[in-house]
Amino acid sequence: MSDRAPAGQFLDAAIGLLRRVRDEEADSIAAAGTLLADTVQNGGRLFAFGAGHSSLAAQDLVYRAGGLALMNLLAVPGAVGVDVMPAPLGSALERVDGLASAVLDSSPLREGDALLIISLSGRNALPVEMAMSARALGVKVIGVTSVAYASETKSRHASGTYLKDHCDLVLDSKIAVGDAELTLDNVPAPFAPASTVVTSALLQAVMATTAATLADRGVEPPLLRSGNVDGGHDWNGRVMERYRDRIFYRH
């Protein structure tokens, strides 16, 4: 690590990853935006799922100012974030076989919908099973993961496969195994994770593509406005009423 301040080094690392995503994932981002636009136009519903800290990027898409009103959070009890106590229980739940299928069986997901599955490692049973089971239902699956994990770690699913192996499209976040960008001689562990920054930006790039694609087709994108600008709540009320059959976070 150079003499530059850690804050600047971390920001440089994050910017470098964002540039890689911009340049190397452009085609995949365009394809994902087109898939979601097709789903919206065909009457399908949109869902996002992530476990643990991967859930942060999923939550960032739901009921979001400037975001698509049709994006719903697919929540797995105990795996949404670090609100579960003790926190390691959430990590343990990601390894439980059968949990994803049970959640999907009681969810509104159906054929013709699209599901974003966010898992940095893509190695745990929960995201792998979620992708497999969703596709079996006729749901289009977009996986957001670090592809590097598949060559540097062992799968924790009985099939030996990873999230990337069960998706219609894969978006690679480029995050290195371990998700820590900095090291110091006097710090015993690497630190400063960038996965949330990069994954959220990657997904917002997909959302921007979806909105623009719908507009290019003459379809008004179902976007939400900030509730902190004049008229925002009224605007959102109209959008949610129009699409009430495809929005599940309001019920």
From TrEMBL:
InterPro entries to which the protein is assigned, alphabetical: RpiR-like_SIS, SIS_dom, SIS_dom_sf, SIS_GmhA/DiaA_subfam, UPF0309
CDD domains cross-referenced by the UniProt entry: SIS_RpiR
Molecular function via GO: carbohydrate derivative binding
Pfam families linked to this entry: SIS_2 (PF13580)
UniProt GO BP: carbohydrate derivative metabolic process
Every SIS domain range: 36-221
Signal peptide: none
Domain of life per record: Bacteria
HAMAP family reported in the protein's UniProt record: UPF0309
NCBIfam families listed in its UniProt record: PRK02947.1
Family: Belongs to the UPF0309 family.
PANTHER family per the UniProt record, alphabetical: PHOSPHOHEPTOSE ISOMERASE, SEDOHEPTULOSE 7-PHOSPHATE ISOMERASE / DNAA INITIATOR-ASSOCIATING FACTOR FOR REPLICATION INITIATION
Entry protein name: UPF0309 protein CA983_24295
